[in-house]
Amino acid sequence: MSDNSGLLATNNSTTINAISYYIYETILSIQQQHPEWIKPKYRNIPWHHPKYQSALIEKLTKGFSNTKGGKEALNLKVKHYLQIILTTEFINCSQYKALIAAISRRIEPEITIVSSDKNINSEISGSSTNGTKIGERSIAILLLDVENLQLDTATEKILVDICNYPIQIKVAFANWRSMGRKDEEFHKRGYQLIHVPPGKDSADLKMATVGASIFVNYPKAKEVLVCSSDRGLTHLGTTLQSHGLTVYQVRKYKNKITVLNSQTGASQIYALSVPDIPTIDKFIIQLQELLRAETEKIGQQWIKYSRISALYRETYKMHLKDVVATYFPEPKSREIFVNYPAYFAIHKPSARSQIYVSIFNLFKSEPPKLTPPKNDIAPHTNLTNIPEITSLEVMEKVLMKIVIDLTAESPGSYIPISHISNEFNRLYGQPITKAIKRFQPGKNFLNFLELSSSLKLYKSENGCWFVGLISDG
Q1: pLDDT, tens digit, for every residue of 370-409?
Q2: Is 430 a domain residue?
Q3: C-alpha to C-alpha distance for 236 and 250, rounded to whole angstroms
Q4: Is residue 61 in some structural domain?
C-alpha cells in the first residue's frame, strides 16, 4: 500500500522550500562555527553570498521535488545531499542525528514525541506536555549583547522564572577590552565570554552567527533568550523559531524590561530597580572628571567614546545611555557630548571610526583666569587684583565676562548657573547672593538674572538653570 501522506508531503512546495532553506541555513551555520565539518570542496564557498544561497536552495528544491516514493524517499534524499557536503566526522556525531530529526519533523508534521525511535526523540525534545518546568534533559540558553544591554542578577532572576527549562548555558558578547572589569563579573556569574573587535554592531553580528547554530551545537535546547535592545536581531529570533525553539526577545529601556515570546506573541513588561539618575549638572561634572582622569593617565587629549562609556559603567554602576535617555528624546549616549559643546568636543577621524571625546581648557585642573571687560573694569591677573563690586551695573559686567570666558570655545552656548556662582565665589571669596543683597536686600542670584538686560536664563526639563548672553542682534 502506498504512503499517500508521504506523497502529499513530497509534492508540497511549501514544505520542500522550507526544508531546502533549513538545510542552507544549517550549512551556513556550520561553516561559520565548525568549517572542518564541511568537505574541502565546499568549505571555502561564500555561502552567505546571495548568489550561492540561491544556487544551493534552487538545487535542493529541484532535487526534492523530483523525489518519488513518499516521506521515506525524501528523508533518504535529504541524507544523500547532506553526505555530499558534510564530512564523515559530522555524519557520525549526535548533532547530525538532531539535524535529521529536525528535518523529519518538517517532512512528517504529524509525528509527536511519542515515536518508535525513543532515543532520538528523548534526545531532541526531552519535554513534557503538561507545561511544567522540566530539568532532566531539555535546557534554555541565554545570549546577551553586553554592549547593548546588561543584565544584573535581579533581572536575570526574572528571566529564569519566565523559562520553562533551566538556563544552563549563558553566553555574553562584547569588546571586553573596553568594558572595564565586566568580564570578571560576568565570568563569575557563569557566562561564557566571547570577545568581538570594536565596531558598530560587532557584538550583534557575532551573536547572530553563534545563535544561528544553536540547534546544531545544543540539540537539547528548547528555549533561547536573545537579550539585546537592537532590533536587528529579530531575524535571529525568526531563524531559531523556524528550528522549533521558543525564542524570548529581551529588550530594556530605562527602568523597564520587555520580554516577547515569539511562539505565543505575548509580551510582558517588568519594572526594574535602577540607581538614582544624577542631575544634568552632576552628570556633566562626572563625565568631566572621568575625561580629565583618563587624559592624565594615558597622556592623550582625545579619549575613545567606548572607553568613557565603560569607565562610567564601572564607576557609577549605570549606563551612559540610561542617563542620557532621561534628558534627551534621542536615547544615544553621545547626545550628551553633542548637545553640550561648551563642555565637550567630539572628533570622528573617518566615517568608519568611532567617536573620540575631549574637554576644553576650562576644565583643566586649574580654573580659568578671568579678565574683566575692556574699558569697564581694570585688568587683573590674580585674586588680589579683581575689580571691586560697587554697583549692580559692575556686577552684571563681571558676570558677563565670566560667561564669555566660560563659553569661549563655544560662543552663544549656555552655562549652568552653578558654574557661574562657583567662579564668582572663587574670585571674590563670598557667595554671589551675599554680594547681591548689598544692593538688593531680599533678592537672590536668580532674581538678579531675571532682571538682567545682558544675561538670559534657560530652564531645562529637569529643573536645572542655565545662563547665556543676550545677543546684540
Answers
A1: 333 333 333 333 444 577 888 888 888 888 888 888 777 6
A2: yes
A3: 13
A4: yes
Question: Rounded to the nearest 10 degrees, how much is the dihedral formed by the CA atoms of 449, 453, 455, 461?
Answer: 60
pLDDT at 275 (0 to 100): 63
> Given 62, 96, 124, which residue is the final one in a domain?
124
Domain that holds residue 343: 280-363
Q: What's the structural domain count of the chain? A: 4
The model's confidence at residue 254, banded by pLDDT at 50, 70 and 90, is: low
List the CATH number of the domain containing 190. 3.40.50
Examine the domain organization and report whether 259 and 310 are in the same domain: no
Q: Strand 246-253 to strand 455-459: parallel, antiparallel, or no bridges (unpaired)?
A: unpaired
Residue 299 within a domain: yes
* Structural domain contains residue 309: yes
For residue 459, report the phi and psi dihedrals to the nearest 5 degrees.
-110, 120
Between CA 165 and CA 133 the distance in angstroms is 6
* Domain end point (choices 78, 99, 124): 124
0.70 exceeded by pTM:
no
User: Which tens digit of pLDDT belongs to each residue from 84-108?
Assistant: 999 988 888 877 887 888 787 767 6
DSSP 388-423: ---SHHHHHHHHHHHHHHHTTTSTT--EEHHHHHHH
Closest-CA residue to 82 (of 103, 110, 68): 103
3-state class (DSSP) for residue 268: strand
Cα separations in angstroms, 368 against 26, 137, 209, 421, 461:
63, 67, 52, 14, 29
- Residue 250 · residue 227 · CB < 8 Å: yes
Per-residue confidence (pLDDT) for residue 307, from 0 to 100: 87
**Are residues 436 and 319 part of one domain?**
no
